[in-house]
Amino acid sequence: MLAKLSAAERQQYILDQIQKKGSISVSDTAITLKVSEMTVRRDLMELEKRGLLQRRHGGATLLTAQLLDDLYSWETRVRHNVEAKVAIAKVALGLISEGDKLILHSGTTVALLARMLRSYGSLTIATNSILSMEELLGSPQVEVILTGGILNPDLKQLAGPLALQSLNSIRADKVFLSCSSISTQDGLFFTSAMDEVALEQASIRNCREAYLLVDHSKFQRSDFWVVGQLTQLKAVITDAGIPPERVKEMEAAGIPCIVA
């Protein structure tokens, strides 16, 4: 049994247990912490809002990049970890100059950046992301180029040979992309969608600078499809939730990491 804890201490205990076990039970946690099940549920709701776990019936599980990509709907992913994604998008916004030619790939953080660019100024933006395209609709100073291709309704993006042909025909100043996971030890970043690999690789080749927008939940994991090496990027932009040792690993490997 534990002595009575504050809300912050309870939530830290919950995170410690879920890291060790992979999942927790509301009822068991309430007994251990000597609080009501409603109190535990409130703690889980708060931790889920912060993007630290996924609530399930009767408990919660560890939140991983794979869960985000495979289990969450697009609409849920848009709302997940919003504060971190907004902070990352704001940093990316500061790297853009009026008159830039940009490529925006799919991903919720990149779509938030697109929203911020609506009234930014004169820009040319190519994208295969339906969500980014929708965010840019009606912007009087932004010229939007949609790649064309085969619609993936789950990822809200265009892919296939036509999309690849479009991106191979473009030379841009900067590309902003996301990924499903990063391994700083291997120096690689990954996607869980095969269709994204060639498109993102082409964009990195055809832009002067490539920026990876990724929140802290994506680090130290590997997916099946390798997009590229972290050294190909101008910088990785992430949020303050990233463990300091991950930042040190990237910096030691010569990979700039900007923490929002």
UniProtKB/TrEMBL annotation:
Pfam families in the cross-refs: DeoRC (PF00455), HTH_DeoR (PF08220)
Alphabetically sorted, this entry's keywords are: DNA-binding, Transcription, Transcription regulation
Its organism's taxonomic lineage begins at: Bacteria, Bacillati, Cyanobacteriota, Cyanophyceae, Thermostichales
Transmembrane parts of this sequence: none
Q: What SMART domains does this protein map onto?
A: DeoRC, HTH_DEOR
Which superkingdom?
Bacteria
Q: What is this protein called?
A: DeoR/GlpR transcriptional regulator
Organism of provenance:
Thermostichus vulcanus str. 'Rupite'
InterPro entries the UniProt entry points to: Carb_Metab_HTH_regulators (IPR050313), DeoR-like_C (IPR014036), DeoR_HTH (IPR001034), NagB/RpiA_transferase-like (IPR037171), Tscrpt_reg_HTH_DeoR_CS (IPR018356), WH-like_DNA-bd_sf (IPR036388), WH_DNA-bd_sf (IPR036390)
Ranges of residues in domain HTH deoR-type: 7-62
